[in-house]
């Protein structure tokens, strides 16, 4: 073998050895790992904890606007008869006044001749004056009542205008909320495919799990019947629900009216430490009290509820101890 060929082979072996050493020393590039299901659930919980207070604020603003509009409609219904009474009464008095004064003394003479005697004329004149006086009093009383309603309606109209402005502001936030919710939905579909997120809709075989009778039982039974229906924020049934919309709708079936707003429902009953079937259960005391469900009994020694969890999910049973508990309220 020639010295040139020997040197070439030695150089090749050296380059291969150096390459192998460089490969060994180079840091390995991390492979892109897909998030695990627990990581996705944690991300959803974190983002939803920021979104749900906005949704509940939307419910509050929209609910207050509807109440004001309903109050305005009722007030306007009261004003309409008053308006008519004032106009009719004024017209009648105007006719009386015109008939009495248009002829001057000729009216008195004609009345005297028609009456047949001065006494009858005096009586007729007195009756005419009494009628006119009574009508004037009626006008005055009606006008005062109408003025009172007008002042109240003006204040109500202003309140409605202010509330509509808030409603429009929330409508702008709605676009951002919907965009974020679409991202959450995409995460859920990626995690669960077309199957049910979060496992089975029910815990145990019965819902309500504990029967007590009464209005609480009625409300809980209706809440249980909604299991499987989709979560839609701002919805209060009968096909879609958000958390406070579900509890409002179910308790309405028991004849009890609740607001479509979690914080309002917190004050629409009696606080209790030991829940009964149908009681409302509230969560996130340190984050604005923005979620509510309905207690339906115990399964395997753990308290369970029916609730509308969040976007991408459905009405379902869940263990109460999976979220930060604020307390229980028994609607009244």
TrEMBL record:
InterPro entries: NLP_P60_dom, Papain-like_cys_pep_sf, PG_Endopeptidase_C40. GO terms for molecular function: cysteine-type peptidase activity. Residues 1-33 form the signal peptide. Pfam families: NLPC_P60. It comes from the Bacteria. One of its GO terms (biological process) is proteolysis. Residues 209-332 form the NlpC/P60 domain. Keywords: Hydrolase, Protease, Signal, Thiol protease. The keyword Nucleotide-binding does not apply. Belongs to the peptidase C40 family. This is NlpC/P60 domain-containing protein.
